Amino acid sequence: MRIKGGQPVGGARTVEVRQGETVRLVFSSDTAGEVHLHGYDIEKEVAPGDPARFTFKADKQGRYEVELHGPDTKLAQLDVTP
Question: Is the pLDDT of residue 30 over 90?
Fold first, then answer.
């Protein structure tokens, strides 16, 4: 997913996965910031030429927001279903 000017290109997206699956999310940005996956409490730095890469097992059911901090902007929503 691309971030331009602090906003997700094409708007915030919904990513649907099943519990137990391995999730891989990659965010590239034209400015530096921090991408935070709520609920799983994973934070990654992002900068031009240095994407934020998330790889984890979806072991918790629910709906979780992915935000760009400073300013807080919703990038995506992760839905983990049984």
Answer: yes
Q: Which residues contact residue 25 at a Cβ distance below 8 angstroms, ignoring those fewer than 6 apart? A: 1, 15, 37, 53, 54, 66, 76, 78
Whether pLDDT at 70 is above 90:
no
Lowest-confidence range among 18-22, 36-40, 67-71? 67-71
Q: Can you list the domains of the chain with their CATH numbers?
A: 2-81 (2.60.40.420)
- Sheet of strand 62-69: strand arrangement: 13-18, 73-81, 62-69, 33-37, 42-46
Neighbours of 29 (CB within 10 A): 25
Place of tokens 């034209």: 30
